[in-house]
Amino acid sequence: MGELRDSARQRLRDTIVDAARAQTVASGWDGVRMGGVAAAAGVSRQTVYNEFGSKAGLAEALARREVDRFVADVRAALREHGADVRTGAYAAIWHTLTEAAGNPLIKAILTSARGGSDALLPYLTTRAELVLTEASGALLDWAGDHLPAADPAALAFAADTVVRLVVSHIVLPRAPIDQTASSLADLALHLFVTAATP
Description:
This protein is an all-alpha fold.
């Protein structure tokens, strides 16, 4: 019975966060109103407050979910290509660049240190370091699985470098996504192979 109640509550929270996300994408966090979120989610305004406590609590939940989904998608893109380091790196980098181009929340999270005026920014800024760490961790875990003899410090440097370069291309794109992803995947392959070479 408790699991059923927890599942129903999670669905309710997801519905509310979905509504908040849609409003944020449409008009920015400053334009989000708890009453509007409640109406879009088909619940009362009090229900939104009961679940999240405040607009700040809802912002925190929205930022956390965006990070979780993004990192899960990066991990899936890497896993899909197994031991093919270059193809896996390309898929993960392409996904990240594409997602940042089409998802203003992910772009804001990945580039939040660059500043901005939206009131959601403080919640995203607290997530920026987390998403960089988790994305590097995803890349590092995957490379470690497929390059077990590699030097751990060199792998960590390679993963961190690739993630930071991807973010720099989100902030200041210089070429089409496919071309950038291809060039960065070549670099990732070089860094990871170098880490694995005694």
